[in-house]
């Protein structure tokens, strides 16, 4: 029986990307998010986000009813396409946790932290494949 090497699964999702570009102008752009189980998430944009800034992605075809919440990412430049589009590797921004010292009690700190996450629209992941 021949051995076959399994190829990592790559999925593509239509998303809306937004953030601030290198000219300090806010942009909103429709593009494709590529998720690879082994190498992570990648995005190609016509805009170049400011170095060190966050970009926000929102699924255009949400998997749950209602409008999907945006997810924050840091975009690391990795190249430019022949057409001049910017390519990025994405790393999801993790919301900051509130320490119990900052809250009046342990329970209040947990409630506050959960509410901040909901209020800001943070989610664990945009796509389940990676």
CATH topology of the largest domain: Thrombin, subunit H
Instruction: Strand order, main sheet: write it out.
Output: 1-2-3-6-5-4
Give the CA-CA distance, first to last residue: 30 Å
Report the C-alpha radius of gyration, rounded.
18 Å
- Secondary-structure element series: EEEEEEH
Content of β-strand: 35-45%
Number of domains: 2
List unreliable stretches of 5+ residues: 105-123
What fraction, in percent, of the residue positions are helical?
10-25%
Number of helices: 1
Gross morphology: globular
Number of DSSP E strands = 6
- Mean pLDDT equals 77
What is the CATH level 1 assignment of the largest domain? Mainly Beta
CATH architecture of the largest domain: Beta Barrel
Helix-strand makeup class: mainly beta
The biggest beta sheet is recorded as: 6 strands, antiparallel, barrel
Question: Would you mind describing this structure in some detail?
Answer:
Helices cover 12% and strands 39% of the residues. With 130 residues, the chain is mostly beta strands. It folds into two domains: 10-93, Thrombin, subunit H (Beta Barrel), CATH 2.40.10; 97-124, no CATH class. A hairpin with a 5-residue loop joins strand 1 (10-20) and strand 2. It starts with 9 loop residues before the first strand and ends in a 10-residue tail after the last helix. Residues 105-123 have low confidence and may be disordered.
Topology readout:
Layout: E1 10-20, E2 26-36, E3 40-45, E4 54-59, E5 71-80, E6 86-92, H1 106-120
Antiparallel strand pairs: 1-2, 1-4, 2-3, 3-6, 4-5, 5-6
